[in-house]
Amino acid sequence: MNLLTPTLNARKEYSQSKIDLIKASIQEIEELKKHKNLCIYVTGSFGRQEATEYSDVDIFFINSETEDQISKLSKTLIDADFIRLIDKMGFPPFSNDGQFLQIHSLEDIISHLGSPKDDFSNYFTARLLLLLESSPLYNEEFYDESVAKMIETYYRDFHRHVKDFLPIFLVNDVIRYWKTLCLNYEHRRNTEVDEGKRKLKTYVKNLKLVFSRKLTCYSFVLQVIANYKSLDNALLLKIVKMTPVERLNNLALIDNNLSGLIQQILELYSWFIDLCNQPEDQLFKYIEVEANRDLAFEKGRSEFGGKLFDLIIKLTDKSPEILKYLVI
Known about the structure:
By secondary structure, the protein is mostly helical. It has 2 domains: 1-154, Beta Polymerase, domain 2 (2-Layer Sandwich); 159-328, no CATH class. It contains 15 helices and 4 strands. Helix 7 crosses helix 10 (233-240). The longest helix has 32 residues, at 196-227. The radius of gyration is 20 Å and the shape is globular.
């Protein structure tokens, strides 16, 4: 069963075609060939496979620090080639002046999980984006190994509770990530001057928060709810490799009675994707009009968010015990 709209299918095809081009071009970066224990993955709209021609490329690096030390000079050469590659392919420049081009070690991401350094060193973001909305660009073998090791960390007690294991540790982290995104948005509002273009950027960020960021987190939570009685490492790995809209579509295969509600959610999300498929200035002109803005946030907060909540309630109706763990 495929409930994805024509827009979502087209965005997936477009995203994958661009990812394939980037993958092929990356193979030509000579400096990368020296590092077998380094992987690169894309997140954001390309990681979710819903990119438009106006989407930028968000990438993260992970390496195995104990086996593959990368010198500053080597990393500088890799970054320079990567920046040239992205520019040559016509993508917008990396956001925040390349802030996220730093390399994280797999060992650090796992060992500091839950510690103060988890947030401070950006391990938390790298880990959650890897699990929720990523697609490998370079060294897929090490990418798969990294995902598997992170799942094993969250599942360290699974072998003692095979029949009744609940992935509370993982779900708490996903919900914490959603709450962090909301807090980060409020922080930006407090530090930015709400005038002119900056104010319009804030509206757009808010709209993306209530649509794409929310779906990224809660499509994962919904899959955990639907499969919690049989959610072993192998099944969780399959869920990680689905995009957010694929996770929703897959729920209809689990319970066909949910297909009508899921289709409504995907149609609302498709409306949002269509809206974003225009130059930034045109999107700003749209959101600047109060009536348009009210319509967009009504669709996002009341309709889209409300139907996602309805889906959670329907999935937990027969198993109310799992709902308890999402709340307390």
